[in-house]
Specification:
The chain is of the alpha+beta class. 49% of the residues lie in helices and 20% in strands.
Length: 144
């Protein structure tokens, strides 16, 4: 027999094989912690502090998108009474309030709404083209 049978050689194991395989998983966990888990925990902590600071007169947005004014708050209870229309009050669980709009923000939002109404009124008076639209279209077509 001139041909000898060939046997596959087994690969030698490196001394740090287990640690080298575990290192990428640890690095992935660290990246996930700093990019996903930690910011979410900060956001939850801030939301809890916001819910704890709710007081009478604040404007709130519920999880369903209803905007109302807080009319009664109980410190120990999980519910807040919110007035969503004149003489229409509903009880909302504190945890279901998604945002608290402070009084100054509510005033700024009302100002923005009034400005938007003015732009809409001028658009109706100008035949559907408001001042901002006129200037943008005017620049596009060479008008002042």
């Amino acid at each position: 027999m001139f041909i000898s049978p060939a046997y596959a050689q087994s690969a030698g194991t490196s001394p740090g094989g287990g640690l080298e395989a575990l290192l990428p998983l640890v690095l992935i966990f660290v990246v996930f912690y700093f990019l996903l888990i930690r910011p979410q925990q900060k956001k939850m902590k801030q939301h809890k502090a916001t819910l704890a600071a709710i007081r009478r007169g604040d404007t709130v947005v519920t999880g369903g998108g209803i905007i109302g004014k807080v009319s009664r708050v109980t410190d120990d209870g999980p519910e807040v009474q919110v007035e969503i229309a004149p003489d229409v009050k509903v009880k909302v669980q504190r945890e279901l309030i998604s945002a608290v709009i402070s009084k100054s923000e509510a005033i700024a939002a009302k100002k923005e709404a009034k400005e938007a109404e003015k732009v809409a009124e001028t658009a109706n008076e100008d035949g559907g083209v408001g001042e901002k639209q006129t200037s943008i279209l005017g620049k596009m077509f060479g008008r002042k």
